[in-house]
Design goal:
binds 5-thio-alpha-D-glucopyranose, two-stranded antiparallel sheet, 9% strand, binds manganese (II) ion
């Protein structure tokens, strides 16, 4: 019998090579797993029901490889993609591992480092295009400081903009139809990273030369680290048409970036996130890849990595089913209908031109005490959500 929660390519689940390929090193300990060759990663992901795989340039091609070496590796990878049927919807550039980026890439004070970063990003984009990627992610892991004595943060933001504007313009001139997805993180590995949240990024995008090409790639862990709501970050991005990609994982609030298996912490946050992405309440759904940027516990061997990958995808599908059940729940619908009711057509008045609205509002009989009187029944509503989530 088929299990309805087993993933299939139609679910459009993706993993980064760096996620299932993570060897389990941490700042206090060496790797615990051997490097899994990219070809085996593709085979196992395809067998598990994933749709695609994403990568950094250096997940595939080692830093400093010769052109011939690069072409050989890429050709081999292309063959493995064809054999497994997986696609590469997103590519990104590693602008953080090499010591040259110790003081930033696009925001480094040394213009030669910024030039090197842009050149590397161009090569990363070319690789992405060759593999069929439509989205290019920019995660500015090193774009920050330990001390603000280092530079004026306004300069950093201006240099960041210059580099992205240059890259957008170059991509357009090449005639490539790509979108850039900017990923925020508040700290780690830098003491403070510029443009710390998805909200910061959304504003920054409005200041770019090609804002239509740029959106965001919110990550659960990165919003939860400082205790913010991923659901609200994603909702804001969706509401303005800027959710270009997503990094799904899990995180205990206030810790270092844990990149845990999706849904393994803050299950309720994951439930409302999946509900939002799937549009189970009848609102527009997110139509991009469902990407997991997480890795297996350091306790695991390679089999544990595949348990982890299946777990991410199954949890997402189970939560989607629970969200659909919640949105179909008659009692929940009644509570929501009651709190949103507008028998006198007042909502419309708030959309009138200001002078007309002012007159219309002045004429309304609005008694704050009467309006305040009724409870909203959110205790009951939340319990209904929770019972669906728990499968009760
Ligand atoms: C790195 C980081 C992630 C980013 C990846 C893309 S690399 O693993 O922790 O959040 O999404 O550069
Ligand atoms: Mn990420
Ligand atoms: Mn992370």
């Amino acid at each position: 019998m088929t299990d309805p929660f087993d993933p299939t390519p139609a679910d459009r689940f993706t993993f980064g090579l760096w996620t299932v390929g993570n060897p389990g090193a941490d700042p206090f300990g060496a790797p615990v797993r051997r490097r899994i060759p990219p070809e085996r990663i593709l085979e196992r992901l395809a067998a598990a029901g994933a749709w695609g795989v994403n990568l950094h340039d250096n997940d595939l091609v080692p830093f400093g490889a010769s052109a011939a070496e690069r072409d050989r590796i890429v050709a081999e990878f292309q063959r493995a993609l064809a054999a497994t049927g997986l696609c590469v919807p997103m590519a990104t550039t590693n602008l953080f591992s090499h010591p040259v980026f110790r003081d930033g890439a696009f925001t480094a004070s040394d213009p030669k480092v910024r030039a090197f970063a842009v050149r590397k990003a161009m090569a990363g984009i070319e690789l992405g295009v060759e593999l069929g990627a439509r989205t290019i992610v920019f995660w500015g892991g090193r774009e920050g400081v330990e001390t603000d004595a280092a530079r004026d943060p306004r300069d950093a933001i201006a240099w960041y903009r210059e580099c992205l504007d240059l890259l957008c313009g170059w991509v357009k001139e090449q005639g490539w139809e790509l979108r850039f997805a900017l990923e925020a993180k508040p700290n780690e590995p830098r003491g403070d990273i510029y443009l710390a949240t998805t909200g910061h990024m959304l504003h920054f995008i409005t200041t770019l030369a090609h804002p239509e090409m740029c959106g965001v790639n919110p990550e659960v862990a990165h919003e939860n680290m400082p205790g913010l709501s991923m659901v609200h970050a994603v909702a804001q991005a969706m509401e303005c048409g800027k959710l270009f990609h997503i990094d799904l994982n899990a995180q205990k609030i206030g810790r270092y970036d844990q990149d845990l298996r999706f849904g393994s912490e803050d299950l309720k946050g994951a439930f409302f996130l999946v509900r939002l992405l799937e549009g189970t309440n009848g609102r527009p759904a997110y139509d991009g890849p469902r990407h997991f940027d997480a890795h297996a516990y350091r306790t695991e061997d390679e089999e544990g990595v595949w348990d982890f990958a299946r777990g991410c995808m199954r949890t997402y599908k189970i939560l989607a089913a629970r969200a659909r059940a919640f949105d179909a729940d008659e009692e929940a619908r009644q509570i929501l209908a009651a709190t949103h009711a507008d028998p006198d057509g007042v909502a419309e008045l708030l959309r009138l031109p200001p002078a007309e609205a002012a007159t219309a509002l002045a004429g309304l009989d609005l008694d704050p005490d009467a309006l305040a009187a009724a409870g909203r029944r959110y205790e009951r509503l939340d319990q209904i959500a929770l019972e669906h989530l728990l499968g009760a």
